[in-house]
Design a protein that fits this description.
The complex is a heterodimer of chains A (106) and B (184). Chain A is built from three helices and no strands. Chain A is mostly helical and 106 residues long. The longest helix of chain A has 25 residues. In chain B, helix 1 runs antiparallel to helix 4, helix 3 packs antiparallel against helix 4 and helix 7 packs antiparallel against helix 8. Classes of the chains: A mainly alpha (106), B mainly alpha (184).
Chain lengths: 106, 184
């Protein structure tokens, strides 16, 4: 489900784990290693994908608010929104509702 | 408007009870550099931003900060939910238990309740954005202190995640500040 990222962005998984999608802003603390808890089943894996996408969309959106002419980032964000909506709908249908209407990210 | 989703920004699976860390971490909910103050600060200030993008930036970061409150509260809940009365007594948490049971209450690590005096909203966009940058740095520093106080990976990793968000928010506030300083 991952798209190729450009030179300025971490790939979605690495960005999520680090808490920062932007290579130039990343600031490591001492020698601590980031990571997320071990995923134990398919439902958790799908939910983790949703969480990663949600995180990345938000992080890119904040960026576009101060870089309104960066169309490349807006295009990447749009693709992630499509993936998010697909996964969100799948989770709502197959596993459980993630919000009160099982709705879409807008 | 706000819409709640039934998942956290970052997964939490804390296996070890740790009342001492719970007592410290709660400050990132209701303390002076905490997420509740951050959310309310940016939310309140957003209405006075002179551009659509500026207002949206503050409101979107405020919404993210509310989700970080959810993480902090869930961390404290997971750290304390199985504590016995004797354990609460031995960690000097019995006064908090008397007032709140095992409920989550916005306070600092000393037990002082959250107060709106932690935040400012001056009506001056440069003053407000300067405060926002400082607030992000103070929150980053507090997360570093918390990370230094534990060796539990289940706590360190989400704290590292939250620390990194402060760095990103600082940068976005700085960019907005520079844009406004230059006269848009």
């Amino acid at each position: 489900m991952l798209l190729d990222f450009n030179q300025t962005l971490f790939d979605i998984e690495e960005g999520y784990i680090k808490g920062n999608s932007f290579k130039n802003l990343y600031n490591k603390y001492k020698n601590y290693k980031e990571g997320i808890p071990k995923i134990t089943n398919d439902s958790e894996a799908l939910l983790t994908d949703i969480m990663m996408l949600d995180f990345t969309i938000n992080d890119l959106y904040l960026y576009t608010l101060t870089h309104k002419d960066d169309q490349e980032t807006k295009d990447i964000m749009k693709k992630y929104i499509e993936l998010y909506n697909k996964d969100f709908k799948l989770y709502n249908e197959k596993i459980e509702s993630l919000d009160y209407i099982g709705g879409k990210y807008v | 408007m706000f819409k709640h989703k039934n998942y956290l920004p970052y997964p939490l699976k804390i296996k070890k009870k740790d009342l001492k860390m719970a007592k410290y971490i709660i400050t990132q909910f209701g303390g002076p550099a905490g997420e509740l103050g951050a959310a309310l600060r940016y939310f309140s200030q957003s209405f006075n931003m002179p551009t659509k993008e500026g207002r949206e930036l503050l409101m979107t970061i405020a919404a993210e900060e509310f989700s970080h409150n959810e993480m902090i509260c869930e961390m404290v809940h997971q750290l304390t939910k199985d504590a016995t009365i004797d354990e609460l007594k031995s960690h000097d948490l019995i006064s908090l238990y008397t007032e709140h049971g095992k409920g989550i209450y916005p306070s600092d690590s000393f037990g002082n309740p959250f107060t709106a005096t932690y935040i400012a909203s001056t009506g001056d966009i440069l003053a407000d954005l300067s405060e926002d940058m400082a607030a992000e740095e103070k929150a980053r520093a507090t997360y570093e202190h918390l990370i230094d106080l534990t060796d539990d990976e289940d706590l360190i990793k989400p704290l590292l995640f939250l620390r990194q968000r402060e760095i990103v928010h600082f940068e976005r506030f700085k960019e907005l500040y520079n844009q406004y300083k230059k006269g848009l």
